[in-house]
Amino acid sequence: MSTRPTLEVVARQAGVSKATVSKVVNGRDDVGGQTRERVQGVIAALGYMPTTGRRTQAPTVTVLFDAFVNLYSAQVLAGVVTAGLEQGVDAVVSHLPSGNGPGALSPAWFRSLAARGHRGLIVVTTAMTPQQVRSCADAGLGLVAIDPVSIDPTTTDELVSVSGTNWSGGMQATEHLLELGHRRIGFAGGPPASRPAEQRQYGHLAALGSRGVPRQDELVLRTGFAYEDGIRMADQLLRLPEPPTAIVAGCDASALGVMEAARRRGLRLPDDLSIVGFDDTYSAEWTSPQLTTVRQPMTEMGRLAMRTLLELAQGNRPETHHFELATSLVVRASTAPPGRA
After folding, report:
1. Alpha carbon separation from 24 to 58, 180, 321 (Å, rounded)
2. Rounded distance, CA 272 to CA 264, Å?
3. Torsions phi, psi of 222, nearest 5?
4. Structural domain boundaries in the chain
5. Beta carbons of 284 and 72 less than 8 angstroms apart
6. How far apart are the C-alpha atoms of 184 and 51, rounded to whole Å?
7. CATH value of 58-162+300-325 in 3.40.630.10, 3.40.50.720, 3.40.50.2300, 3.20.20.70
8. How many CB atoms lie within 10 A of CB 14?
9. pTM for the complete prediction?
10. Segment 11-32, tens digit of pLDDT
């Protein structure tokens, strides 16, 4: 008759103390990356299940962010947690270490989640490789990606994704400025590796093309979604011999950076420069002037991701592998016809 492996057996095979194994089991972050991966590998190989220590009374789902120091992440998380409460499921929030670190999203890491009884994983704006997606499935975990960064979800059935209609949103933002009379419109977008940023740029360019406005490469920049990125891109655009009369930003955070760069140059908003953001985070109403932006249903995206993941955990196939929720333009005070001053 086989016996269950104990904490002591895991520690001995991994060459660490029982205290270190306990820290890994309980998700503590004060264990080195290589040590953590080695312990996780032994846990998975032995099929160890903790019998003491921290226990999750309710089913558990991991929510993984690349970073959660922004309002977008907060609103998505609110939807995930709300749906979890409705279903009696706990959400454990984690984020990738800087540079991803050793063992991040490794096969052993996925196996350790499964060994702790987690139902699955929701990743938010986090880059994953096809190999990592397969490793998650091999560990028996469900996986849903919100705004997948590095994988085209329409080309694979291995990844279920939830996003806003990024292409349509980019088009809505630029069409609004074109209707106001702007023709020289800058684009301050997200990082080159981001699929949502790429789709928003394509929507922007499609809107220009539909009105016969030619693309001008000096007006299209793709740096990042951070406030500081917005400042840098706006500085570059506003230094042009013929600066834009309006700028579409890749998200609300970078739009705030565009606003700051414009103010430093003494520009009046929206008289001298119109600005459109993307997301409609809480900050859009806190700015002066209030920010015109494209609203993503971020809370509902989080709710849908949790509900879909629980369906996967029960062995049910989703209606589709790629859910897109509609965006809508919210017009506030940061946009006006060009040359109003």
Report:
1. 20, 57, 33
2. 13
3. -135, 100
4. 1-55, 58-162+300-325, 166-296
5. no
6. 65
7. 3.40.50.2300
8. 20
9. 0.81
10. 888 888 888 887 777 666 677 7
The pLDDT tens digits of the residues spanning 254-309 come to 999 999 999 999 999 999 999 999 999 999 999 999 999 999 999 999 999 999 99
Bridge partners for 323 per DSSP:
162
Assess whether the region 1-55 and the region 58-162+300-325 belong to the same CATH fold. no
Tokens 């806003």 belong to 164
Residues 6+ apart with CB under 8 A from 41: 14, 108, 111
Nearest to 220 by CA among 244, 194, 253: 244
Amino acid at 208: L
Take residue 58 and report the two structure tokens written for it: 């309710």
Closest CA to 276 of 193, 203, 191: 203
Which residues is 333 bridged to in the sheet?
A: none
CATH superfamily membership of 1-55: lambda repressor-like DNA-binding domains (1.10.260.40)
Stated length of the chain: 341
Architecture of domain 166-296: 3-Layer(aba) Sandwich (3.40)
What is the CB neighbour count within 10 angstroms for residue 9?
16
Q: How far apart are CA 20 and CA 42, in angstroms?
A: 13
Rounded CA separation 82/71 (Å): 17
The neighbour count for residue 53, using CB atoms within 10 Å, is 9
Phi, psi of 248 (to 5 degrees): -95, 125
- How far is residue 298's CA from residue 78's CA, in Å, rounded to a whole number? 9
Residues 250, 188 contacting (CB under 8 angstroms):
yes
Q: Is the preceding omega at residue 130 within 30 degrees of 0, hence cis?
A: no
